[in-house]
Amino acid sequence: MSAGSVHGPVVVLYGRPDCPLCDEARDALLALRAEGKRFELRERNIEEDEGLLREHLERIPVIEVDGTEVSQLAVDPVALRAALSP
User: Fold this and answer.
1) Distance (Å) of CA 86 to CA 12, 33, 59
2) DSSP for 11-72?
3) Contacting residues for 69 by C-beta, under 8 A, at least 6 apart
4) So what CATH class is 10-84?
5) Please, which of 44, 52, 72, 85 could form a disulfide with 59 given CB 3.0 to 4.6 Å?
6) Cβ pair 49, 67 in contact under 8 A
7) 61: cis peptide before it, omega within 30°?
8) For residue range 16-27, what is the model confidence (pLDDT) as tens digits?
């Protein structure tokens, strides 16, 4: 059984407010959804969790698909598409 939800894989975007790279990553994910890729998008503000802040501060945005990191700092469209493919 897949780790994803009934609506496809779970994609987590780790970022913080006022982060232009995080906004670009969100836009890229939403564009993939508009193309028909099915996934559940969850966003995590790293400023709300000290552990996440320490882990991700220098690497945001970080994108995970079903718990596997597929991108950091800039969206890797090839890796992201591969991770979202059935």
Assistant:
1) 18, 14, 27
2) EEEEE-TT-HHHHHHHHHHHHHHHTT---EEEEEEGGG-HHHHHHHTTT-SEEEETTEEEEE
3) 62, 63
4) alpha beta
5) 72
6) no
7) yes
8) 999 999 999 999
Tell me the C-alpha distance between 12 and 31, whole Å.
15
> 10: Cβ–Cβ under 8 A, 6 or more apart, which residues?
3, 4, 39, 40, 42, 65, 66, 67
Task: Please state the separation of Cα 32 from the chain's center in Å.
Answer: 12
The pLDDT of residue 73: 94
pLDDT single digits (tens) 40-85: 999 999 999 999 999 998 999 999 999 999 999 999 989 999 999 8
Has this prediction a pTM greater than 0.85?
yes
Residue located via tokens 């006022």: 18
